[in-house]
Specification:
Blueprint lengths: L4 E4 L5 H12 L3 E6 L3 H11 L6 E5 L5 H5 L1 H9 L4 E4 L14 H29 L3 E6 L12 H21 L3 E8 L10 H9 L9 H13 L7 E4 L12 H10 L1
Parallel strand pairs: 1-2, 1-4, 2-3, 4-5, 5-6, 6-7
């Protein structure tokens, strides 16, 4: 009971896995959620349990409201408490302003925006019942500070989450702090290849972007820094300072074709 407990959504793989392992190494008990990545979740769980803390992997369809609302009580049942939520799980599918429709917008909203709000509500209620304080960290995207029309529905969902981050921080203070971490190009995703990934990083002022370890550092900082709420840390190698008319994948592809 002396260890703080954090729930990391989508913690089975990629950035979520790195965040979960980083927090476990820092002394947190960690619960991760997965949906399709059951084998990867069990692998991450084994790695988490090599340390001294407690760890659990929970199946969750975050687009289902009842299942999402059940997560915080389930973490409390297994750990005895919960102190923080890292909303990392995300859908990232391509569309643009000409092709987006209600189905795509709903898909991204139910994956990227609504679950983070529901989990913040549940954590806030738990903290009100116990008298403790806690924190929510939402994974955003530097695209919000450097917008382009690619991945239209995805970007809209993250813009809504950034607005929700500020509003939740106002509504739930001082019991719950809410902040954001906005990565840039962190891992290969979609149709981007290794060469395009390398070229994309060179477009940034620092000539690098945001490896998952840097993102995990920023998440851990917000979770443990009591004077911060309602703000977002951009972890992107300065990508948000550049004017990029298209997604970095397309710009890197053009560079590689020259």
């Amino acid at each position: 009971m002396s260890r703080s407990v954090v729930l990391v959504t989508g913690g089975a793989r990629r950035i979520g896995r790195v965040i979960a392992l980083d927090l476990a190494a820092a002394g947190w008990n960690v619960a991760i959620t997965y949906r399709h990545s059951s084998e990867e979740a069990q692998d991450t769980l084994r790695e988490l349990r090599r340390g001294e803390g407690q760890a659990e992997a929970l199946y969750a369809d975050l687009s289902d409201e009842a299942g999402c609302r059940a997560l915080v009580p389930e973490v409390v049942r297994r750990f005895g408490r919960i102190d923080a939520v890292v909303n990392n799980a995300s859908v990232f599918e391509y569309d643009n302003a000409e092709t987006c429709g209600l189905a795509a917008m709903e898909l991204h909203w139910k994956a990227n925006t609504a679950p983070a709000i529901l989990l913040a509500q549940a954590l806030y209620q738990h903290l009100m019942d116990t008298g403790r304080t806690g924190c929510v960290v939402n994974l955003l995207d530097q695209k919000l500070w450097n917008p382009n029309p690619d991945y239209f529905s995805y970007t809209l969902s993250k813009a809504a989450l950034e607005a929700a981050t500020k509003m939740l921080a106002m509504a739930m203070a001082p019991r719950l702090r809410v902040g954001g971490v906005a990565p840039g190009l962190a891992l290969l995703s979609g149709p981007m290849n290794e060469r395009e990934f390398e070229l994309g990083q060179l477009l940034n002022p620092l000539g690098r972007s945001s490896p998952p370890e840097d993102i995990a550092d920023a998440v851990r900082f917000l979770l443990t820094f009591p004077a911060s709420t309602g703000s977002t840390i951009l972890v992107d190698g300065g990508q948000h300072l550049t004017r990029q008319p298209r997604d970095v994948m397309f710009l890197a592809r053009e560079m590689g074709a020259r």
